[in-house]
Write a structure and sequence with these properties.
By secondary structure, the chain is an alpha/beta fold. It is 30% helix and 18% strand. The protein has two domains: 23-113, Immunoglobulin-like; 131-464, Glycosidases (TIM Barrel, Alpha-Beta Barrel).
Length: 465
Amino acid sequence: MNVFIRNTSLLFCILICSNTITNAQIKADKIEPPHWWINMKNDTLHLIIYGSELTNLEVSLDKKDIKILDSREVESSKYLFLDLLIEKDSKAEKFDITLKNKKKKTIIEYELKSRDDSKHQNMGLDQSDLIYLIMPDRFANGDETNDVIKGTNQDYINRDTSLFRHGGDLQGIIDHTDYFNELGITALWLNPAEENDQPLESYHGYAITDFYAIDPRLGNNDLYKSMVDQLHKKEIKIIRDVVFNHFGYEHPLIQNLPDSSWIHHWEGYTRTNFRATLLLDPYASEYEKTEFSDGWFDHHMPDMNYNNKDLQNYMIQNSIWWIEEMDIDAYRIDTYAYPEQDFMKYWAKSVKAEYPGLFMFAETWVHGPAIQAWFAGGNKLNQGETYLDGVTDFQMYYAINNMLNNSYDWTEGVAEIYYVLAQDFLYEKPEQNVTFIDNHDLDRFYGVIDQDLKKFKMGISILMT
């Protein structure tokens, strides 16, 4: 008798526990993009729903002018991918996405907004613009209350070392808008301001852990939007720094990969060889090319695989979201040469389809004008159309430093300026390359020229010419 009771109890427990698990399956914590707009050129919206046990679900909408094209599960049960078709006559409004299994249902509210026709009127850059580069954490501390955010992986500041956070923020930038005008600045390029919730070296912004949120130690999305609005009132454009090659290791999509194909895998940690020349070198080995493109930038920066279509859609939509939401004027593309180049062309073409006036320039930290020009827009070399407006002109940077630090020779010293300019025929629009004398990755120009004020003035004069 006792045995029968114990077995029955066990069976009853199994049934109850099974039902409990089934009932708890539908949990949706977050959806990206957080909202979207009607009347976009591309009528397809790709959504990622974050949660747990998102399997065996029926998905429905209570909005008739939107159709579900696809609802698919991936290797991880923490995500559900939805592709929606937004009809031309769709209305801007909130609607419900219902996820249902046999026992339970969960409703997610989503919003389609109207586009603001007053935005994007003066976007783009040209030769008249003077760009000022800011690393937000290192510029000015306008709000000491966000210096330390409890719960972040690096919840302290330490100005005694360059590797830790120093406390700068978006409010500090807002407080200096008059200063930028006094300098004659017409465009601000900010290193990435999105969340970098990494245990170490989170100050620089290039290990992003949330592509839709400003890092709370810098401010928030509303403050970023306010900053852009105030800069625009001062006739200062905003350049957003975008990163495709890698995510921060603490990003949820890395901690719990939707499927294994989102990143490049190696048997052991393999770092990129940093040789972009391999992409166009006719004698390069396939292994070295793969090591360059698929190797990781660092242990905490997983290398993303843009052969994955879901990842492609995620990053393209993220780029469009920031432009539409924040009124961005230009994109600087970090580590441009490293991701799959077919995707980078597709990304640029997709974004340009929505915003033809957006200026895009790519970081091309390479050696040699022909190598640099291979990545530029136009079709003068074998790469084909990249849809870029310009590239960072490292060749002119090298030449200016050579001019000021080396003795004159047939090809050295000031002569290098001539030889760089003489090869502008390699570009479709050489005047759109972005010239500079230093940046956040390089030693300060004044130190490179041994703090010689005369040389400093010469370098600035060449830059401004």
